[in-house]
Design goal:
2 helices; mainly beta; five-stranded antiparallel beta sheet; about 5% helix; 10 strands; three-stranded mixed beta sheet; elongated
């Protein structure tokens, strides 16, 4: 039996638009209470996906959360190991805006192939979630659905070599950041 201040939320994550190579290896779910006023963290959990299920396009995770009428749920899928420490210490949603994913962590040295043990990060956000006292078991859990989007984009760029470039330089960004949008 759950304490009177806790409830159950079932988060359904949908990887719409993901390619077949986009395996889901990890899912971090961060839930904030009082999200529209002064967000405070409720839970921050990292779930490792069983290898047999990594190719699925829909995942459901049951979470024990505090009862609150103003929750925000954030999902970060395939977080790089270099960011796990930072993400596990997250105390405010604004901290997500400052996180940068480095392409070098996911691609080979020539940036032509995704590393075999890596998958591109995806994120999702759901605001205005209400978990009430009636949501006290997996049967009657608060159900929310969230579509994940890639946090980084792969762009194939083909350059034609010209003999007379007159000192033109091309600079490509090597990082991407998360923007919290519904």
């Amino acid at each position: 039996m759950l304490p009177a201040t806790r409830g159950i939320m079932q988060v359904e994550l949908i990887t719409a638009g993901a390619e077949s190579s986009d395996l889901i290896r990890t899912v971090r779910v961060v839930v904030f209470d009082h999200a529209s006023r002064q967000p405070v963290p409720d839970i921050n959990e990292l779930h490792v996906v069983d290898p047999a299920n990594q190719g699925a396009t829909v995942f459901k995770i049951n979470l024990e959360v505090s009862r609150n009428a103003d929750k925000m749920v954030v999902a970060i899928v395939n977080e790089p190991a270099s960011l796990s420490g930072e993400l596990s210490q997250l105390t405010h949603p604004d901290g997500l805006e400052d996180i940068a994913f480095r392409f070098a962590e996911f691609f080979n040295s020539t940036h032509t192939q995704l590393l075999s043990d890596k998958s591109l990060p995806m994120t999702g956000v759901k605001r205005g979630v209400v978990v009430s006292d009636a949501k006290n078991s997996a049967v009657n859990a608060k159900k929310i659905s969230m579509t994940l989007e890639r946090a980084v984009a792969r762009v194939d760029l083909y350059l034609k070599k010209e003999t007379d470039l007159n000192g033109i330089a091309v600079r490509l960004a090597t990082t991407s950041s998360i923007k919290l949008q519904n």
